C-alpha cells in the first residue's frame, strides 16, 4: 500500500473496534467492518484511535488488530500509535509499517503546556519514527493540549515526515484558515488537513480549505457525500446531505455515551455483532435507545425527501 503523503484527501474513517459481549475482540466483525467502510466509499481508514478503544487493549492486541485490518483493507490504513513514551510508540509504529500501514498518528502528551514543548515533542516524534510518515493529532478537547497555528507551521517546516494534520480544535475554523494562509504564501509546506469532531463542522471546514474528514460516524456515507459534493463544487448538495444526518451526528458527540450510540447503530446495521464496549465502558439506557430510534426514523424520512 502506498505511503501517506501531503496530497491525501477524502474520508479516512475512524474505525471502531468490535468486541464480543465478554470483551474479547470480535474478529468476524472486524472483517465485516472493513468491508462495510469500503462499500460506503471511504478513501482510507484510521484504527486504534481513542474511539477505537485503543487504551483498553494490550500491545499484542493492538498489533493483531492492525495486522488484520491492513491485510484485509483495499484502502490505505493509518494507525494510532500514541503512547506514554517514544519507545513503545516507535515499537508499534515499526510493527504496523511492516504490516503495510500507510502511516501513523500521534497525539501530544497531556503534560505539554507551552509552544516550545509542543514543538520539541513533535520534533522528537519525527526523529523516533525515522522515515515513517505521520499525522499530527490536534484534539485539545481530549488531550487538553492547545497547539497554535504558528507552532504547527514550525513543525511542518522542520519535520518533513509530518504530512497531515488531524484537525479537531473547537472552535477551529480560524485555525484552518490560518494554516492555509501560511502555505498559500509559501511560508510552509501545504500538508493534508482532515477534520474530526464527528463531522459536526465538515461543510464549513471544507470551505476553509480542509481536504476531507478523519472521524467516525455510524453513517460514513454522510461524510463521503459531503466531501465528494464539495470537491466537485456542489456546495448546496453537500449541505443538504449534511443537514439530513446532523441530528444523529450531534447525538453521537455526547461525552460518555457517544461511542455506545455509534456502536448501537453499527450493530443495528449489521456491521458488528455486538454494541458492547470493552470495560470500563457504558451502554445506552432504554431512553437513550428510544432517542436514537427516533433520530433514525426522522433521518430516513429526510433522506427520502432529498433523494439521498
Automatic annotation (TrEMBL):
Gene3D superfamilies: Aldolase class I (3.20.20.70). GO terms for molecular function: 4-hydroxy-tetrahydrodipicolinate synthase activity. It comes from the Bacteria. SMART domains: DHDPS (SM01130). One of its GO terms (cellular component) is cytosol. Pyruvate binds at residue 214. The keyword Lyase applies. Keywords: Lyase. Pfam families: DHDPS (PF00701). Belongs to the DapA family. PANTHER family: 4-HYDROXY-2-OXOGLUTARATE ALDOLASE, MITOCHONDRIAL, DIHYDRODIPICOLINATE SYNTHASE. This is Dihydrodipicolinate synthetase. The lineage of its organism: Bacteria, Pseudomonadati, Pseudomonadota, Alphaproteobacteria, Hyphomicrobiales.
